[in-house]
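call fold(seq) -> tokens
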Amino acid sequence: MTEKLSKLTKAKLIERIGEMEEQLDYLSQKVEYLEDTKYDEFKTELGLTYHTDEEWINYIKRIQDLNAERLRDCNELSNILKQMNNQRRLI
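ret:
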């Protein structure tokens, strides 16, 4: 828009507004497309069908929680094995 708006006729202003609305519609469609396809690679690789940021965040949090639980279980088992080894030495 190199022309000054004050120098444009009413018809030209309406034409410019129409062009801008078309551009805005085009950009809105592009954004919607990107939002719809941004997780396609994850879906393909992982075989999951999550579509929103919130769904993916919840999925990742569940994995983190499971990993933390497994780590606690491993630490507990390690302590039990150490105790068993110490008892064996005493016998």
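Residues 53-90 form the longest helix (38 residues).
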